[in-house]
Amino acid sequence: APTATSDPFASLNPAQRAAVEHDIGAAAARPLLVVAGAGSGKTNTLAHRVARLIQSGADPQRILLLTFSRRAAGEMTQRAGGVLGRIMGTSAQASLPWAGTFHSIGARLLREYAGRIGLADSFTIHDRGDSEDLMGLVRHEIGLGQTAKRFPLKGTCLSIYSRVVNTRAPLGDVLQSAFPWCGEWEAQLKTLFGAYVDAKQEQNVLDYDDLLLFWAEMAADAELGPELGALFDHVLVDEYQDTNRLQAAIINGMKPDGRGVMVVGDDAQSIYSFRGATVRNILDFPQQFSQPAEVITLDRNYRSTQPILDASNAVIAASVERHAKDLWTDKVSTIKPQLVLIPDEAEQARWVCNRVLEQREAGIKLKSQAVLFRTASHSAALELELVRRNIPFVKFGGLKFLEASHIKDVLAVLRFAQNPGGRMAGFRVAQLIPGIGPATAGRLLDAVGTAAEPALAVQQFEPPARCAGDWRQFADLYRTLREPGLRWPADIELVKNWYLPHLERMHDDAQVRATDVEQLAQLASGYGTRESFLAEITLDPPEATSDRSGPPLLDEDYLILSTIHSSKGQEWKSVHVLNVVDGCIPSDMATGSMEDIEEERRLLYVAMTRAKEHLHLIVPNKFFIKQQAQMGDRHVYAQRTRFVSPAMLKHFEQTVWFNADTARSNKPMPDSVRLLVRERARNAWK
Ligand code: ATP
Ligand code: MG
């Protein structure tokens, strides 16, 4: 048998070690908070703790590990498995059945407890699009659609509703603080939300927020709370700064004494307050249980070189809030982060490509390089240039997989089979059949919704005569899908075969779309059941282009493109941040309140602290801004982000770049660039 090679805990520093060893061997572990800056090894420590717990006899089945994304859960499980392998001297992977996001774990628990809390276990989950559509529909039904012209749009209504649920704040407060322009509609919004909730319950559907809300309500229940808590000996949470009130309530309800609870986070990296997350959770943690929590801080950064750390620390230190953390590192380097001044976004794309290739020449794999940006659409120019130059890349964040109509169609059929009461899915499916419009679809759903045997109701439904043939085919499919014995993923094959002819009829580019459907089917085959597939794909849709196109690419070398939000927790040797200008970071969509601006500063801090050795902040002088509808999109002259103040320039090396074409066109450069060129020319000899 293989033997343990080395002590994986030996590499931990004393503070990390204290967190890993916290109350090991005690009858029960007191609550523990690790609060520490970027790259200080929080996630790493968490993974080691999981391994240590298992080593000391904890049952992996009874460890709840909550992470920010499915990918993060996978990585953490793998890391813990690696450590465990080294301790135990086996290659055995840690199998942690309860590792995942709050939402996906919530979905699983609700499925198991559905009967106990008055839910039918065939419930389906609405994605953001479905939820908006239902909100829109309800709004229309109660008459707010037609009469009130200036009534907030369905998407805004859903955001308000979601804020209220996730922050547990009264509607009036939420309106005042986050949606002041909707304040006059408070009474109507109340009515609307009431009707929206009724509609969800009638149809047996849950939206994202419900997964947390129902879980929190169960956790708060005198009987169910302890029962849920007793499922787990250990509850560990990464990125705790980005959890909201409901999530804190869930932990608190399940573990009122905080036994076995460990959370890690960094208040300087809180970037999800627009979704109701609050750093208060970290601040309140030490006192929220019936016994005080132990708090451990880590101050050594293992990720970045000193110059990168200096620049990042300067950016966050200017924050009006207090992030009492001074990170240090022993990674000396003479390479300062670069501030690259560039004429426009096209040049930015070229510059990044040049630099990326240069670095690859110098031995830094594409995979060890990332390009980060504020919003998914900001990488458009770069993507074109990458394709033109044959540089492979994978993009994370902002993928619109679930928004493609053909993907929605297939999922709707599966959801309608799962939950015949779900009207959004049913409505969509019925209208796939040629000759069936909204009126007929509505009639069908009324019949199916009240039927004891939905498949029979579909069978007996009488559509307009001209679609009888197509209808019969659908009814047959539906009956098969409703049969209890049918094995997954056979369902999706049936749906696919039924759907492809319709696809051809509806779309000119049916072939491209058919490939997507194939990919969806492939993805589906990785899941054990229809429910788990539907829940996972809805909660955590493929978020990278590679998640869609399958494994082959994974062996190759490719550049990483990612929104800053999706880059959380990760690291690369070299990082490029695009559009580091006012109007982008901070976004001009930020309302201008101080809290919003501060969140944008933290966003830049998160981006910068992803870099291990090379960091480039790129400042295009002209920047394309999507304006409000009436003003049209346009290019504007932009300024370097306010978060890099003149006093901080000493932390950067400045590069001014414009290629020959631009120079020849002899466009006047703004003063800032001209002066810099002159300045650099003057200092060149030094
Ligand atoms: P973030 O705030 O960005 O999520 P983090 O605090 O979770 O960062 P990790 O991702 O856990 O930090 O660790 C950052 C890097 O430092 C990783 O490459 C990790 O392997 C390394 N690291 C952490 N602790 C040690 C250690 N004791 N010795 C050597 N390397 C370490
Ligand atoms: Mg981390």
UniProtKB/TrEMBL annotation:
Classification lineage: Bacteria, Pseudomonadati, Pseudomonadota, Betaproteobacteria, Burkholderiales
Short name of any one Pfam family annotated for the protein: UvrD-helicase
InterPro entries on file: DExx_box_DNA_helicase_dom_sf, DNA_helicase_UvrD-like_C, DNA_helicase_UvrD/REP, P-loop_NTPase, UvrD-like_ATP-bd
Originating species: Massilia horti
Domain UvrD-like helicase ATP-binding: start-end pairs: 15-305
GO molecular function: 3'-5' DNA helicase activity; ATP binding; ATP hydrolysis activity; DNA binding
PANTHER family with a match to the protein in the record: DNA 3'-5' HELICASE, UVRD / RECB / PCRA DNA HELICASE FAMILY MEMBER
Annotated GO biological process: recombinational repair
GO annotations of cellular component type: cytosol
EC numbers: 5.6.2.4
Superkingdom assignment: Bacteria
Binding site for ATP: 36-43
Protein name: DNA 3'-5' helicase
Reactions performed catalytically: ATP + H2O = ADP + phosphate + H(+); Couples ATP hydrolysis with the unwinding of duplex DNA by translocating in the 3'-5' direction
Annotated ranges, domain UvrD-like helicase C-terminal: 306-569
UniProt keyword terms in alphabetical order: ATP-binding, Helicase, Hydrolase, Isomerase, Nucleotide-binding
Family statement drawn from the similarity comment of this UniProt entry: Belongs to the helicase family. UvrD subfamily.
